[in-house]
């Protein structure tokens, strides 16, 4: 099997045939003895090194893969993005969330929350009165890589309610057959 490299779309469409599995001319197979085709497009200070054979996957019945490591001088590296502005505390008179310190309080009493409990509570408190489906919560709080179902959300909401206490557990409202919403108690 040959090595695959990413090319800019303009140069790839002018000279390269598409691969059946490649999206829109952006990938091109390279034979092991071919000079990397994007070398001239990089900074002249860039260094191409052959990747160690043991670091590349081996596919049964295929020739060994060839890969390259590209070393780019630090001054040619892309500029770092500007720092994000500090997140402001959210919440209401009852529940306050400080995302910088990653703390949550109920009427001044600190809550001991796990990472996901904190993320779930801060997500709900930042969007009061908005109904969130279980799937939306799994996607936004747990992330796309999470494998699970809506019961995961139910369990975490039950834990949050327990930690909020008897007075404030009703601030996380169940919307039957849909999901949950945060309703600040006044």
Description:
The protein is α+β, with helices and mostly antiparallel strands and 186 residues long. Helices cover 23% and strands 20% of the residues. It is built from four helices and eleven strands; from the N terminus they run βαβββββββαβααββ. A four-stranded antiparallel β-sheet has the order 5-6-7-8, with helices on one face. It has a three-stranded antiparallel β-sheet with strand order 9-11-10. The chain has a two-stranded antiparallel sheet with strand order 1-2. β5 and β6 (95-98) form a beta hairpin. α2 crosses α4 and α3 (134-142) crosses α4 (150-164). The chain is elongated. The N and C termini lie far apart (66 Å).
Write out key terms for the chains shown.
186 residues; alpha+beta; four-stranded antiparallel β-sheet; three-stranded antiparallel β-sheet; 4 helices; 11 strands; 20% strand; disordered N terminus
